[in-house]
Design the sequence.
């Protein structure tokens, strides 16, 4: 996918989600922190870093979605529906067709 196509997709997701940060800033800002350590309280609570809260428009609170991958957790603004939309949007028609066809394995196609 070319950059302008990716930006168009991001803009469409942005309009549907109510996501407050400008998408070009949220995805491509220079100097954006990419890693850090978080502390988890004994009750399982953690704080989202201020830079992410500002970028995601969550200064007054809001919804985030998460996906537990086993060894990692992905967190996105907008809640679980937004997370599903973003994940589904990354898979193109060609990949969906291959999945429905069992990726070349006829036994998988019947599953």
Sequence:
């Amino acid at each position: 996918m070319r950059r302008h196509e990716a930006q168009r997709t991001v803009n469409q997701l942005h309009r549907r989600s109510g996501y407050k940060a400008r998408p070009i800033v949220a995805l491509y800002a220079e100097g954006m922190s990419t890693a850090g350590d978080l502390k988890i309280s004994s009750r399982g609570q953690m704080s989202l870093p201020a830079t992410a809260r500002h970028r995601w428009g969550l200064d007054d609170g809001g919804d985030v979605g998460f996906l537990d991958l086993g060894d990692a957790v992905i967190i996105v603004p907008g809640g679980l529906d937004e997370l599903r939309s973003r994940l589904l949007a990354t898979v193109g028609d060609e990949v969906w067709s291959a999945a429905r066809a069992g990726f070349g394995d006829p036994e998988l196609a019947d599953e």
Notes: Helices lie at 3-17, 23-28, 50-55, 79-89, 93-100, 106-109. The two ends are 30 Å apart (CA to CA). The beta strands are 64-68, 73-77.
